[in-house]
Structure formats: structure tokens, C-alpha cells
């Protein structure tokens, strides 16, 4: 699956995207990323995920061939 990183997550990881071998729910993906990147665990707790450009629920299952946007909360002004 291709993970696309945005905003502060992209800045902290110093990458726009990466490919990972993952199958499971969005909730399990969040846990996987929190373990892989403990330095941004606080951000990942409040991050939204979009699968193929559609926001996903925590229970949605990922088969492993999707494009998943990892979108942290953004502030506006």
C-alpha cells in the first residue's frame, strides 16, 4: 500500500510517501504507524485517514493495494 503523508507528519518524517506491506483495519494501521514512528505518536492519535481519496472509518479494512492519505489536524486562520 502507498501511504501519503501531509502537513506536520510529512515534515517530521521528512518524506512525502512510502510503500508498506500492510493488511488490516484503519485502527490497526494507526497502531502499526504509532509503533513504527513513536516520535509522532501524539499526532497519529488524532490523524484522519483517507483511502483512495475518501475519508475512512476506523473499522474499514485495507487489502494492501490502496493509496492511503495520512492527514493530521490542520489549523486555519
List the helices and strands and how they pair.
Elements: E1 2-5, H1 7-13, E2 17-19, E3 24-25, H2 26-36, H3 41-44, E4 48-51, E5 54-55, E6 61-62, E7 67-71
Parallel strand pairs: 1-7
Antiparallel strand pairs: 1-2, 3-6, 4-5, 4-7
Folded structure, characterized:
By secondary structure, the chain is α+β, with helices and mostly antiparallel strands. The protein contains 3 helices and 7 strands. 29% of the residues lie in helices and 29% in strands. The strands form 2 sheets. It has a 5-stranded mixed sheet with strand order 2-1-7-4-5. Strands 3-6 form a two-stranded antiparallel sheet. The longest helix has 11 residues, at 26-36. The radius of gyration is 12 Å and the shape is globular.
Amino acid at each position: 500500500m502507498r501511504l501519503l503523508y501531509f502537513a506536520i507528519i510529512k515534515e517530521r518524517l521528512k518524506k512525502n510517501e512510502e510503500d508498506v506491506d500492510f493488511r488490516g483495519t484503519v485502527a490497526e494501521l494507526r497502531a502499526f504507524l504509532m509503533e513504527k514512528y513513536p516520535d509522532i505518536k501524539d499526532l497519529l492519535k488524532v490523524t484522519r485517514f483517507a483511502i483512495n481519496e475518501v475519508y475512512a472509518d476506523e473499522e474499514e479494512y485495507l487489502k494492501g493495494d490502496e493509496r492511503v492519505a495520512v492527514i493530521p489536524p490542520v489549523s486555519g486562520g
